[in-house]
Amino acid sequence: MYNGGKIIAGLIIFFGLVTFPFYSNFGKTANKVTPKLDTPVINQLEKKECVKPKEYMRTEHMKVLDEWRDEVVREGKRDKMIVGGIEIEKSLQNGCLKCHSNVKTFCDVCHTSSGVKPYCWDCHFIKEEGLL
Ligand code: HEC
Ligand code: HEC
Ligand code: HEC
Questions:
Q1: Whole-angstrom Cα Rg for the chain
Q2: Whose CA is nearest to atom 43 of ligand 3?
């Protein structure tokens, strides 16, 4: 066993190499990517704001979408709202995407990095408009 040291060192290196992809994936979460806020509509807002505070939106935006959908589809509440000085609808397309028209460089950069695939686009036709 006079080679024990080398074998152990070899094992350590081997183990490090094998697990490297896992370490290097660490931190590649939604917090590390930078979704682009630079769209024509957002650039012209009186006030750079979202429908809720940014920190809330960052983690809870799907709740807002769920609430809007229920209000519109189940309760028929289609009242518009003023955000950042412009009128928007409670709608994925005529609300969120009115400002965040850059689906690829906004929604998708986060979703891809966290392995999320919202199925919304199956029905909310944005492919045809070149947004996806
Ligand atoms: C099976 C098809 C389908 C899928 C999948 C789907 N929706 Fe919808 N959604 C609809 C239909 C139909 C309406 C009603 C449109 C209307 O009355 O204006 C609607 C309305 C909405 C509305 C309110 C009005 C509007 O035009 O945006 C929101 C918000 C919404 N959906 C969000 C979502 C989200 C978020 C997802 C993914 C998590 C999703 N939907 C997936 C079919 C779908
Ligand atoms: C009136 C324009 C407008 C609308 C409508 C809007 N947003 Fe935003 N959104 C913004 C702006 C501006 C910011 C950045 C706010 C800030 O920096 O404080 C933002 C921030 C966000 C963030 C956080 C981004 C980050 O860097 O962490 C998410 C997520 C988001 N919006 C999703 C949505 C979703 C989903 C909807 C629809 C339910 C929506 N937004 C509707 C303008 C809008
Ligand atoms: C700051 C990063 C970030 C941005 C920007 C962002 N998302 Fe998300 N989104 C996430 C993460 C992370 C999840 C998964 C959260 C979870 O599972 O708890 C998610 C989940 C969702 C879900 C729920 C999907 C599911 O299968 O449960 C919907 C719907 C959604 N996002 C829509 C949008 C839309 C539409 C936009 C662009 C207008 C957007 N998101 C922008 C990070 C982001």
A1: 22
A2: 110
Look at ligand 2, atom 23, and give the residue with the nearest C-alpha. 58
Kindly indicate the confidence band of residue 17, based on its pLDDT and cuts at 50, 70 and 90: low
Q: For residues 41 and 68, what is the distance between their CA atoms, to the nearest angstrom?
A: 21
User: Which region among 23-27, 44-48, 96-100 has the lowest average model confidence (pLDDT)?
Assistant: 23-27
Distance CA 112, CA 70 (A): 26
Of 89, 87, 90, 96, nearest to 131 (Cα)?
96
Mutational pocket test of ligand 1: of 67, 71, 73, 94, the residue with most ligand atoms within 8 Å of the beta carbon: 73
Ligand minimally distant from the alpha carbon of residue 124: 1
